[in-house]
Amino acid sequence: MNSVAVPATDDSLERLDRLQALAARLLEACSAQGADQAEVSCSEERGLSVNVRMGEVETVEATRDRGIGVTVYFGRRKGSASTADLRDASLDASVAQACAIAKFTEADPAAGLADAGLMARPGPGGWPDFDDWHPWALDADRAVDLALACEAAGRDADARIANSDGGSASSSASLGVYANSHGFVGAERDTHHSIGCALIAGQGDDMQRDGWYSYALAEADLESPVAIGRHAAQRTVARLQPRPLATGTYPVLFSAEVARSLVGHLLGAVSGGALYRRASFLPDSVGTRLFPEWLSIREDPFLRRGLRSAAWDSEGVATRASSLVEGGVLQRYVLGSYSARKLGLQTTGNAGGVHNLELSPNAGGFDEMVRGMGRGLVVTELMGQGVNPVTGDYSRGAAGFWVEDGAIAHAVDGITVAGNLRAMFLGIEAVGRDVDPRSHIRTGSILVGAMTVAGAD
């Protein structure tokens, strides 16, 4: 896309300095109140988003948010308070409130800051640059033009596009500081931009809806509004005239944009919170083969322009590149300090979530995978929440396409795909190279060799 000049007056570093000074002041106040440990998070966000529909502007929203969170520990007793008011009286009241809560809270042996020795430290050249700060001088008029152009390209692409759910454009810039009484202070800033539209094809009972969007840290990495609109139109029209599907057991190819949800179910099952609550179908699974031997899942917190790159987690613990799954075998859990203590383990630097997971591919692009599967179901949309985190039982509404003789034959909808996640993970036959870049879970399409598909009968 053509770049829009960024104003020379980017004051983000000065604002970060002010947030760091504020965090230091609050930590001193916590210590003066007698807290043994304390942590402070300060954030600011500015953004603009617009929505249009059928060539008309529906909403224009400018946001400017900020938040201050204070957590104190008196021994193993914890108290927290938050405010968006930066006046001295409000800040002092927040510290006092957090301390009062802690004093009347029952002690929790797992509570407290992460161990001091695990805090991230800058290298000789300072903190790494993840290339995630790309402010976009997007004003309301320009945002409206982009959203309208996206929707118009989609509506004009095919005469069967009869209606629209609208187009959108948005941009935001966030600043954050985390500091604690171990002496750790981390400041970060990032930007996020998106353009998209959703379209409706057909008439009456034969209407189908689909869309597309582009999302990136830098405006230059966004697809053009015209390309997005045309892609949305192609996806929408392709869903017209769906045919029924007989119930049976078939290969199922999850397209890249929905395949990452399978990885999300794995993350939920190996996260510390689910494990210590015994709400996971994968307890005591480190060292167990969960996937085919060729499949690995690696976490890279240091990926330049990665959607979730960071040198520290939300507790200040140093992140590290490591394998979650190697050779099909689960290597570790996903832990923050609290869940690690509950399990008698050590944090993995994942307080707040994982950073840039990538699955190892063993296949080509989407078209090649369709040809290779021969006959089966392609899933492009999932509906409902039919996943049991305790048993791993999986049953979700779906829509997509039937494949016959290695080619897409027709659209299908109103179906249900079912199985058990353990069997589904082991039954993965291929991961494609068609990575969807719009998520920190970087995976291509995933082919599961056999699943139960409930159709119209």
Automatic annotation (TrEMBL):
Organism superkingdom: Bacteria
Ranges of residues in domain Metalloprotease TldD/E C-terminal: 247-455
GO molecular function, one term: metallopeptidase activity
Domain Metalloprotease TldD/E central, first and last residues per copy: 134-240
InterPro entries to which the protein is assigned, alphabetical: Metalloprtase-TldD/E_C, Metalloprtase-TldD/E_cen_dom, Metalloprtase-TldD/E_N, PmbA, TldD/PmbA_N, TldD/PmbA_sf
NCBIfam families given in the database record: PRK11040.1 (NF008268)
Entry's family note: Belongs to the peptidase U62 family.
Protein name as annotated: Metalloprotease PmbA
Organism: Luteimonas viscosa
